[in-house]
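re: ur question from yesterday

yeah so i grabbed the chain u mentioned. its 244 aa long if i counted rite. heres the sequnce exactly as i have it in my notes:
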Amino acid sequence: MNENGQERAEAEEAGETAENQEAEKARETLDSEAESDASDASDASDASDASDASDASDASEGDEETPDEDLADLKDQLLRALAETENVRRRARKDIADAGRYGIADFARDMLSVSDNMARALDSIPSEARAESDIVKALVEGVEMTAREMAGALERHGIKQVNPLGEKFDYNLHQAMFEAPATGQPDGTIIEVVQVGYVIGERLLRPAMVGIAKAAPAPDGDESGGTNGKEEADNLGATLDTSA
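ran it thru and got these structure tokens back, copy pasting raw so excuse formatting
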């Protein structure tokens, strides 16, 4: 019995030893495979980094401009800067010219009322009073001389009078105050100047206030003529600008 027990113990020890050896071999195999996978991953990472570095280098080389391209860009920038400088100079010269020409516009507009008052004073004196009194005659001559001097001074500074009697109405220069039918004049003809206008250089200083002719209505029996007359009146009203 003792011998049988000893044999069983020896057999169990031998089995445990074999199992331990197999487990050790399995661990060594797993460690070897893990090291191999880590090495492969490291090699793949190094290859990817090298490829990215190569692509970045190629892109950098592609972005670099040649000396001819750099020269063309600099030339284009220089031409643009010269053109902009010339435009600034041109605008500055125009602004200076306009300031010299139109800088007195407000002062001139205020002086127009003085000229208008002298004209009204002369118109208010009847011709009989001038003939009967030497004093009135001398006063009238003095006012007329002052009015002429005022008109000459305005004209020397580029301010001209606009007296459009008999001309065609122009909304750029005239302000319509009324319409007069049956005057025998064509539509839009200025038949009366209520107040003269003035221009300074090429700009309007004050519009002339005028009355314009309006076409007479056609006879009742002429339906077509009446229609045409109405259309002409509508067209005239569309062209007049009385808000100036």
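noticed a couple things. Residues 67-102 form one domain. also The first strand starts at residue 159 and ends at 162.
anyway ttyl
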